[in-house]
């Protein structure tokens, strides 16, 4: 029987549980020869399809698996490529936007300068004012037409009454 009061000296697996006998299989823990965030490196390596990523980088799946298991360190250029790819995916629709000097150019050709960007709030306010003004003009035109028609009707009725009482 094992000495139970010395369990704190026993080896543990990656979850912190004690194991007795054979050590567990090798964990998946990628390593590098340069300084980087290990958690970020693991996310970059494990969030992609291994076979597709290996083909994209031009390496074998055996080499990719060696990086994942930590048998070989992940090269810096692979880490930088995967990080850049993740950052580009995070941009979403902004991926196709081009920044040149002080202008942001959209893929369809429109561009905006840095000074114009400061006025975007004013442009939005002006646009809403234009819409409100258009609705006001439309409402006023409808009221004008109503009163014009009503005025003509009352004038004809008044002429008819006037003819009846004079006659």
Written account of the structure:
With 167 residues, this protein is mainly α. It folds into two domains: 11-96, no CATH class; 114-167. 56% of the residues lie in helices and 5% in strands. It is built from six helices and three strands, in the order ααααβββαα. The protein has helices at 38-46, 50-57, 61-69, 76-91, 114-117, 120-166, and strands spanning 98-100, 103-105, 111-113. A three-stranded antiparallel sheet has the order 1-2-3. Helix 2 packs across helix 3. The longest helix has 47 residues, at 120-166. It is rod-shaped and about 115 Å long. The model is unreliable at 1-20 (pLDDT under 50).
Strand content: 5-15%
Enumerate how many helices there are, as a single number: 6
Structural class: mainly alpha
| Main beta sheet strand tally, sense and closure | 3 strands, antiparallel
Give me the count of strands: 3
Task: Please tell me the overall pLDDT.
Answer: 77
What portion of residues is helical? 55-70%
- What ranges have pLDDT less than 50 throughout 5 or more consecutive residues? 1-20
Overall shape: it is: rod-shaped
Fold blueprint:
Elements: H1 38-46, H2 50-57, H3 61-69, H4 76-91, E1 98-100, E2 103-105, E3 111-113, H5 114-117, H6 120-166
Antiparallel strand pairs: 1-2, 2-3
Which keywords apply here?
3 strands, 3-stranded antiparallel sheet, mainly alpha, rod-shaped, 6 helices, 2 domains, 167 residues
Write a short abstract of this structure.
The protein is mainly alpha-helical and 167 residues long. 56% of the residues lie in helices and 5% in strands.
């Amino acid at each position: 029987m094992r000495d139970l009061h010395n369990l704190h000296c026993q080896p543990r697996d990656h979850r912190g549980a004690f194991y007795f006998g054979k050590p567990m299989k090798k964990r998946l823990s990628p390593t590098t020869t340069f300084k980087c965030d290990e958690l970020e490196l693991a996310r970059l390596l494990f969030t992609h399809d291994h076979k597709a990523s290996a083909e994209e980088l031009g390496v074998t799946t055996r080499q990719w698996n060696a990086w994942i298991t930590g048998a070989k360190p992940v090269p810096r250029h692979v880490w930088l490529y995967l990080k850049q790819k993740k950052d580009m995916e995070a941009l979403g629709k902004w991926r196709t936007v081009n920044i040149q000097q002080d202008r942001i150019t959209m893929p369809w050709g429109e561009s905006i300068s840095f000074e114009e960007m400061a006025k975007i709030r004013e442009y939005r306010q002006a646009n809403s004012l234009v819409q409100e003004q258009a609705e006001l003009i439309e409402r006023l035109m409808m009221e004008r037409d109503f009163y014009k028609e009503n005025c003509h009707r009352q004038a004809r009725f008044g002429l008819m009454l006037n003819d009846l009482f004079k006659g």
